[in-house]
Specification:
elongated; single chain; about 0% strand; about 100 residues; 4 helices; mainly alpha
Length: about 100
């Protein structure tokens, strides 16, 4: 019988809040954009440490990444961050 109730009832009864769920990722968006812009501008300038400061396969940070690994690592890190935040949110706010 409870599955026939509208979704709004389940949202209110479980104290689900979209604002609280998105607080972590929305807080990180301006930080991510700032870091991206800063690193992009540094790559465009002749900064000596950017040409020899990398590691593994990307020793020169001013050239194109031929394996497209850095954007994939960044996307994976963001996904993990969102998943961890949602887990914390569910445990703390919903399972009290």
């Amino acid at each position: 019988m409870s599955s026939l109730l509208p979704p709004e009832h389940h949202i209110k009864s479980c104290l689900i809040s979209v604002g609280l769920a998105l607080r972590g990722p929305l807080f990180q968006i301006p930080i991510f954009i700032s870091v991206y812009k800063g690193v992009s501008e540094m790559a465009a300038l002749p900064v000596a440490s950017m040409q020899s400061g990398g590691l593994l396969w990307f020793s020169d940070l001013t050239v194109y990444d031929p394996y497209f690994a850095l954007p994939l690592v960044t996307a994976a890190t963001m996904f993990i961050t969102i998943e961890v935040w949602m887990t914390i949110y569910l445990r703390y706010y919903l399972l009290q």
